[in-house]
Amino acid sequence: MTARPLFLSINVNSAGAAEEGAPPADRILEGNPTFRTWNMEEAEGGLYAGVWEATPGKWRIEYDEWEFCHILSGVSVIAEAGGAAVTVRAGDSFALRPGFKGTWEVIETTRKEYVIRV
Question: Residue limits of the (S)-ureidoglycine aminohydrolase cupin domain (predicted)?
Fold first, then answer.
């Protein structure tokens, strides 16, 4: 049995085909957003890491998990229900905590690196 390397590069160019998706229809508020996800790590205990990309549109989001995000390209606006809207763009990093509810609006196709802990 070959040991799995302990260094993991998060790089879509070596990740293979992306998983295609979209928000559930009942959560879409504007547009016709679509997703591409390159999930490069799925570890025991509910840890995930990879790259996610979304096309323009707006939808409702709800987080049961903790997620760290680093925006690689594009522009999005994330608004917490009852709170302020925050514009994120290339170079921005943030975390969404369990219980976060609000909206995600992609203004320009947005690509992010993520680490999720369930």
Answer: 42-114
Pick out the chain residues at pLDDT < 70.
1-2
CATH of 19-117, one of 3.40.50.720, 2.30.30.40, 2.60.120.10, 3.40.1360.10: 2.60.120.10
Q: Are 96 and 38 in contact (CB under 8 A)?
A: no
End-to-end, the C-alpha distance of the chain in Å comes to: 29
Residues sharing a CB contact under 8 Å with residue 100, sequence separation 6 or more, in sequence order: 61, 62, 63, 80
The string of pLDDT tens digits covering residues 82-110 is 999 999 999 999 999 999 999 999 999 99
Give, in order, the Cα–Cα distances in Å from 29 to each of 34, 56, 60, 82.
13, 11, 7, 17
Q: Does the reported pTM lie above 0.85?
A: yes
